[in-house]
## 1
Amino acid sequence: MNRRLLALLVSAVALAVLAQSAAARPPAGDWTFLRKDAFRHYACKVAERGGTWRIRTATFVNGSDDARQHRIGAYAVIARGRGATGASRTDTDWRGAYIQMTLRGARAGDRLWVQGAYYGPARPWADGFRVAAITRCG
């Protein structure tokens, strides 16, 4: 009896861990994992005319359910050069477990920075994920 109860308990814990890790995945399609703060941030890119990229971002709520209640969202910016920034967006509209945003006009040498919008703006020119390394959207 104790062995069965222990096996059932271990199975329940394993299923809970698997469900949590499955929930932390990006939306369907091809995405690059960027970083994790209170949320998990992903991105992919689509070619535009003129040699630029349209960047799609997906921020996963990652168990931070209070984000919806307090209207905490995500901030994304394209950094170019030394301190110059390109397109940026902030959004608090959680759809399901994600906030999705699009930034246009990114160049291969630019960097993408995405963060939870619960603290002030970052210095995106000091960090970020190179646009050239982001996966093409599938």
## 2
Amino acid sequence: MGQSSKISARQATALLTTLILSTAVLVVPAITLTRADQGAWLSMLFATLAAVPLITSYSSLSTFAPNLRLTDRLILLVGPLLGRTLSLGFSLFLLFTMSTVIREGSLLVRIIFLPETPLEVIIAGLSILSLYGAWLGPQALARMNTLYLPLLFLTFFVLSIGAFSKPHWYFLWPPWEKGLSDLVAAAVIPLAWLGETSLLLFMSPDISDLKAHRWKIPLYACLLAGGFLILTLVMILNTFGPNLGSLYAFPLLQIGRTFGENIRGIDALIMSIWVVGVFQKLALWLHYSIQEIGYIFKLQNPKALLPPTMILQNFLGLGTLYSVGELHSYLERYWSYLALSTFEGIIPVGLFLIWIRYNKR
């Protein structure tokens, strides 16, 4: 792969930050507030600190033979059969999670913008956009994200003006009313989102200056995403108190709508920006999972898998999690633990320990 076709470490960091924030700002606050009440911001801080061991494993594995694909690196570490199996499992895990994200993004669009539009139409539209982004590849998405991420940060700035115009700091203290166990349990959900930086394992051949910035890429992405999620929870608590998570599926929307009473259309503009982030996330996951599956099975043109895979994702998005309540319950009770016990947690950490032994040998 030529140097000109690669992305820089800064672009990779920005893509990973968008990957986390685009969906985390929508669903993580409600789930974390329900579990931790006014200690939700402290749970998010715990999650950010707990992500450091995961970041260490992602960084080390991505810079081990960085010009090789994930499959080849895993074959070097654990042998051909297990290496290909783990790489295929990781790719299928991304595709499996995509159907949930498609449903989540489509529900958001329908609730905010198009309540009369059939959900099938919205899911199909988001799927086509994601297919196009995956077809273009990470270089085009990175250039687009250079313009997008500042707009995403701008939405937080605008919302913070509305949230802190009439501060209610007493909603933030004491943060341990529900006990330490609930604070730690509430940190599991955002930790799974921060664990999405594991995509770096797929991205490493596409990053031109990976070795020089190997720690900075996942670390900066997690710190940026974690910091903005802490800010999000503080804004929600400061504006509405700890009970908003159990009342609204997307509590951050309420700040935009409250602020929108003074500036017409600001809430719709902010949500439009977030939906663009969801599309980029889906496109990245789709691109890397299909590229790796095509490499495992030695396909001459892996992109040929994109249309049928997206059609399958479209049907999966339609056939699961019929309501926002079901979506939140699934993410809280199942997906976070599944992700951290497999391809975002235990498996990368185990491979990291094998990598240490491999380096010594």
## 3
Amino acid sequence: MTRTFRLRLLALTGVASLAAGAGSAYADQSSTITVGATVINGTRTLNVKDVTGAAISSLTLGAGHGGALLVNVTDVNYAHTGYQVTATMSNLYPYSSGNYQFGQTPIPSSAVAMSFPGSLFDVANLSTLVTPLVHLTDSTGLFALANLDATVTGTTNSVSTLATVTQKAASSVLNELPVRVSTGAGGAFTNPAAVTGQSGTFNPTAVDVLDGTSQSLGELLTDLINKLNTGVVTAQNLIDDGLLDQNSVLAAAASALGLTPDQLSGAQITSILNGVSATVSDLQPLTALGDKVLGQTGSYNTVPQLSLTLPAQQPAGTYQGELTLTLMDK
């Protein structure tokens, strides 16, 4: 996936649900149920704004002062992959009457550099998509002879990890984030890119702006398990919280008793749901490789600054070029 954003410089790119019906069109009698599947393929977007968060389409640079941008990547139930935002810069060409004057002396792209004062970034409204494995044990004595000890798969759930963390506080929680965020190293745009519609061959210098590296192990899993277990002690609690399917619990309990679920009495069902302890003990692997995080929702920001160093004896006038930011999964 690639998303790009172009900015003119002036100088003086879920969770989807699938359903299938099971039944027979030709039988005299049929029964149809809905089967749901979770597909993690949400959205990841690149947003470039001014430092107040307002929309921006151009930025003016001048000798002695630079211009700052707010670069944002936002995930909404997006697959658990990292990302990289890079920037390329065209030359700044003399510009008049709405046209680039390619035949005149430009300000070279190498005169523009990107830096990250303070390496500032923040992460906001982060949550993680996981499928928990739930351990069921009897705490009522109902299964004293059967020794209920079963594990069932919970429902994919979004667990809030944090509201906002800034770069200054991030060091204490970096291992608990599904995506580890860091700013780019910055530098000059040594080789130019083309402006829109410009012909020719270009091999532009790509400057790293923002990186997100996916994480799936370590403190993140412990943190998520603890959050899923907070205040939850029975199977009914997990069912009410949407983490567990009631039928799965009853099937496991009936199996421990040597029964089928339909043989359970109403009193037994009530006792099972409210008396059986249900603890999130692990997070279901998504693949054989053991990636236990399905995806994430969150907003990641950094504030790069552009500076302009004018070449000696640059002709006076108005110049214009394009800064292009590109978002790619990695």
## 4
Amino acid sequence: MANKFINVLINSVQTPVNIDDVVGVTATKGVASSSAGKVEIFYASGKVATITASGNTNALTWTSDAMNANVEKGVWEAIIDAQALPWNMVIYPSPSVVWDQTYSPDPTADVVYSQTAINNSVLQGKSSAQLTTQDGSVIAWATVVIS
């Protein structure tokens, strides 16, 4: 079976990042105006892929613990969605499309769920939010390093 990959836009280049055998994901916020945030993807082999946010300003990094959780959730949801694709579709979302850095929001009163007409048992209505910084900028990625 082929490895699965998620397309991430890194320095404006579509870059496939391996997501097979992922055992952990952590997001670390940047410190306001002094460091960029990063995501570390841990593999069963012991290797770690570190994806660093672009720049070192608040506009391009995140500076809250709540955002750490959203970034981690977004990466895990992309990994799960990619693994659900058929074996011959190895790149998520597709070879010509990059992951749009979204995550499902926590359930709130304004999220609407409805039952499908097919069997009236499956809940539909996964809405999502884009991973953005406190000033509303979309997180931009600068580098990915495998160690």
